[in-house]
Amino acid sequence: MRHNPEQIWADILSDLSSSARNDVYLRQAKPTDLTEGKLTVTVPAVLAKDQIESRFLVDIDSAIKGRIGLGASFDIEVKEPDSPPRSGPGTSTTSDSMDPPADASDASPAEARLNSNYTFKRFVIGTNNRLSHAAALAVSENPGTVYNPLFFCGGVGLGKTHLLHAIGNRVHEIHPELKVLYVTSETFMNEYIDSIIVRSTSQDFRGKYRTADVLLIDDIQFLQRKDGTQEEFFHTFNELHQNSNQVVMTSDRPPKNLEAVEERLRSRFEWGMVAEISTPQFETRVAILRQKCEDHGFDAVPDPVLNAIADVVQTNIRELEGALLRLVTEASLFNEQLTEEFTYRTLGNHTGPPTTQGHVAITAEDILKHVGTYFRIKPSDLKSARRTKQLVIPRQIGMYLCRTRTSLSYSEIAAAFGRSDHTTVMHACDRIANAIERDAQLNQTVNTLIEDMK
User: Fold this and answer.
1) Which residues contact 45 (CB under 8 A, 6 or more apart)?
2) Cis peptide bond N-terminal to 149, omega within 30
3) pLDDT for 228-254, tens place per residue?
4) Model-level pTM?
5) Which burial class, exposed, middle or buried, applies to 343 when counting CB atoms under 10 A from its CB (0-12, 13-18, 19+)?
């Protein structure tokens, strides 16, 4: 008997509970193939795949065997917008934090480790970033001739890194012969230190950076108080600038406020253009949320809900995306409709997710206790400076949960974990956020901890 994949999928959904049929992630699944008893559906994001597999796979497997036969099977593929299908638990996604390869002399985006998702097309323009976007576009089309150097400054999560990668991707598109190099200031410093330890590599290090046609360096503020690294970057900058090679930098503050950076470097940072990116206005925040819905395949989020998120979250793009993901996930978990009222109830006071008893505020101490209990680790060990393998991942998960389940700032989370530097928390949150999209086991662990705290 020949089966139609669309009809079989509709029949399977009808066999599930009403809450499952209305689940936001299952609604994203599209049947694409039915061959030899194997039904394949595609979803637009890894998050949707993980949610379906962790919550509905057993019921779907039972339903498909009842409809087709005991030998029937089910598979989910991830087909992101404008990208080829990908499947399997080992599916990888592009990280937001990327270091350059050992040799970036071949000018392809992959070898330069540029994030292909960060393009000008996907950058939402508003009054807060219009000048920065225009300058970035001009530099990408004529590198080394206008705005050299170009210096972006602004708070965390406002799109500075996006513009860096957009420049690199655009240069590769229209100037494929040019060598583009993206690097964080931390990586630049670590490679410089390595070149000191192994002196035979010092020429390789200098050749790598001083021959770049376009050098994109992220978070230049971390060079503060690194005198040796500043000296090396000073000479690298001079050689690049003298050869009309483009330098683009980002920082969380303007050059004049980088007080622990040498004056001669600060003055050079201001030679070209300093473009500040500020907090997005309401209309821009809504536009950003619409873009994020498209990125994640959330095609059923009503405009009033997006407006409510933009009303509550007025800080940066990362927090907007985090609020959107949290809202969609919790609506699915609690079988709630995505409404304006639910949005304000969930996000309005940043008091954590709704529970069966109503709103309950989750504290950092609560999270430390739950993570410690789950991993059989004392909360005091999570706060310690020890960096054993048994502590690092649980500690990072705890920081990630504090960031996504409470309204604490990075600095406040750092203090709760006994850290003085908020960048440790930023790194931990980024690492776990990226890892849970490609590691099903870690995703399940985080979801279990979230459930335990309800």
Assistant:
1) 28, 78, 80, 295, 296, 297
2) yes
3) 999 999 999 999 999 999 999 999 899
4) 0.59
5) buried
